[in-house]
Amino acid sequence: MSKPQAHKARKRFGQNFLHDYGVIRRIVACIAPKEGQRLVEIGPGKGALTEGIISVTKEMDVVELDRDLIPILKVNLFRFPDLRVHEADAMKFDFSSLATNGSIRVVGNLPYNISTPLIFHLLSQAQVIEDMHFMLQKEVVDRLAARPGDNLYGRLSVMTQYYCQVEALFIVGPESFDPPPKVDSAIVRMTPHKVLPHVANNIELLENTVRTGFQQRRKTLRNNFKGVLDDHDFETLNIDPTLRPERLDVGDYVRISNLLEKKGQSND
Predict the structure, then answer these.
(1) Do 137 and 148 form a contact (C-beta atoms < 8 A)?
(2) Nearest residue to 189 via CA among 174, 162, 167, 205
(3) pLDDT averaged over 10-residue windows placed end to end, the chain, 268 residues
(4) CA distances (Å), origin 90, targets 40, 135, 144, 206, 230
(5) Which of 146, 183, 198, 201 matches a 20 to 30 Å C-alpha distance to 19?
(6) What general EC class does the enzyme of this chain belong to (predicted)?
(7) What does the alpha-carbon distance between residue 212 and residue 209 come to, in Å, rounded to a whole number?
(8) Gap between the Cα atoms of 19 and 77, Å rounded
(9) Which helix (H) or strand (E) holds 115?
(10) Whole-number Å distance between alpha carbons of 198 and 179
(11) What region, left, alpha or beta, does residue 43 occupy, with left being phi > 0 and alpha being psi -120 to 50 degrees?
(12) 239 belongs to a structural domain
């Protein structure tokens, strides 16, 4: 692998550059890229992970917000003429525009400060995404992969698992980055369902339902949905209203949402 050019990490972009080539090789092995696949990397930085992938795929798209990194990236990866660099904010980028011949695969070492909204942005385009492999703060990965009953199970868990199968792969320590973050990171694989196991009739209403359910985690469903669902509704749903919100699975929240739509609830 080529030696990265110098660039000082910028706090406002949440930059922590991965420099541990053992970890990079392990990530690439988890992604298992193949020639001809359309891989898209968010925040390639100096190109350490990019190089490991494009060496196999021969072509690649990367989305980079920091314009000062782009010349460095192009120098470090000058051997790959089919590297397509998009200077853009990933939060506003239309990833579906890259899926011209089928699906795309998305990878990235995501900035901690925007990881959750960025994941929701990508989930809104899940229909064109084959899978996603991300380096995230370990706690975020734990939330993404949490199961009903877990302490970290919440809105992020439910909405991500509505769209995807989520697998926490392995932990990466701070020493693998420059500068080192103050917390552990982890690699997660998210694979959008080809057929949704549970279909919400109104996705905005589902999002609102989940938000309402978790607004007060220590209170019961009866309390959190007071004025929205009554005991007859819970009986219809076959859901115990004395449960706390973290006890319900994705299918339960979808059924609540669909009942609310039937009752004529708004998205507010």
Answers:
(1) no
(2) 167
(3) 46 63 95 96 93 96 92 94 96 94 92 89 95 96 97 96 98 90 94 96 96 94 96 97 97 98 71
(4) 11, 15, 20, 25, 42
(5) 146
(6) transferase
(7) 5
(8) 16
(9) helix 115-123
(10) 42
(11) left
(12) yes
Number of domains in the chain: 2
Domain closes at, from 165, 192, 219: 192
Residues 61, 79, 8: CA angle, nearest 5 degrees: 70
Say which DSSP state 13 is in: G
Confirm if 181 and 112 have CB atoms less than 8 A apart.
yes
pLDDT the model gives residue 179: 81
- Domain of 188, CATH number, reads 3.40.50.150
- Numbered residues of the known binding site for S-adenosyl-L-methionine: 16, 18, 43, 64, 89, 109
Question: What's the token pair of residue 33?
Answer: 């890229």
Instruction: Write down the pLDDT at residue 5.
Output: 45
Burial label, 198 (beta-carbon count in 10 A; 0-12, 13-18, 19+): middle
126 shares its domain with 211: no
| % of residues, the chain, pLDDT over 70 | 93
Closest among 261, 225, 227 to 240, alpha carbons compared: 225
The answer to whether residues 210 and 181 belong to one domain is no
The pLDDT tens digits for 190-243 are: 999 999 999 999 999 999 999 999 999 899 999 999 999 999 999 999 999 999
Two tokens, residue 124: 């809104």
The pLDDT assigned to 113 comes to 81
- From the CB of residue 97, how many other CB atoms can be counted at a distance below 10 Å? 12
The range of the structural domain enclosing residue 237 comes to 203-262
Residue at a domain's end among 192, 218, 238:
192
Whether residue 4 lies inside any domain: the answer is: no
